[in-house]
Amino acid sequence: MNNQVYYEDGVEGQEIPPMEKQVTTVNILMYLSTVWLMDRIHFDHPFATQRRGLPNIVAPGNMAGDYYTQFLTEWAGEKGNLRKLSIQFRSFMLPGDTLTCRGKIIKKYIEEGKGCVALELSLKNQKGIDCVPGKAIVELPLKTIKER
Amino acid sequence: MTESLLENLGWKKYIGQETPSYTGDPVLARDIRRYALAIDDLNPIYFDEKAAKKGKYGGLTAPLSYVSWAVGVPGGEKSVKELGEDGLATFVGVPEFPNAWELGWVRGGEELEFFKPVYAGDRVTVTGKIVEMNEKDGRSGKMIFVTSEFTYRNQKGEALAKHRVTMIATPRKES
Lengths: 148, 175
Prior knowledge:
The complex is a heterodimer. By secondary structure, chain A is α+β, with helices and mostly antiparallel strands. Chain A has helices at 25-35, 45-51, 62-76, 143-147, and strands at residues 15-22, 81-88, 98-111, 114-124, 134-140.
């Protein structure tokens, strides 16, 4: 949180520092119990594999939104804000997966005096499959305002 | 000859239909902590009141993406007997059309727009409506896209987030 990113720092086409997340059965269990989600594909291995034909139990898709939220909240820093996040569910996230959140700046613009950065996001597993691609808009502070 | 599944189902009339508003119980600091642990996001502003006071929001808040869970799942708390065999009590985003479950549903995607975070102690109210319906011919048959838009507000009436959920419905395969 020490190194605040400013609007002026970002360049279109630039990748922001990636973040890794591990998917574990314990994390999935914590998630299900805290949000009270009883969908058996998330915790019942025989049900998920034999009845639903899945390769394993699968992580709730929402967790991808949480990973991106952490990724972008940390990048935006104390003075920035995650404004918008859209995600598409393409492939399941499985226990044992190492997922890498990546973001690329595709556009920068000023809106109502605020610096906005549009990003293209990917959440690839260790096999390089983008499980939940997405897009985001992050508001970053302007240096010019800071110096005033 | 192309036949419209959407027309046959008679769903178009539901566009614009609002879902009943629902207010959740107050969000506990414990809920926030456990959620942050589940997603392994160890930012002190989710755990430590003192750190949170000094942080950007001036109090203990949940990760922004928690907002949809902060209301709880309306109709989601059911006994084991009442749950379907797949464990599903309800499926957020699946519209309550009389014949909705004649089709199989998967989530296509979501879009979240954040305005303010959820603070510990907040009571969040959700309102929603169906905003869009489309039909496409996919590789394995017809697909119907139903997009709902939910708005979350805190007890002061302040908008916290907008959430668009797109569900994809496909005819069930006989097994």
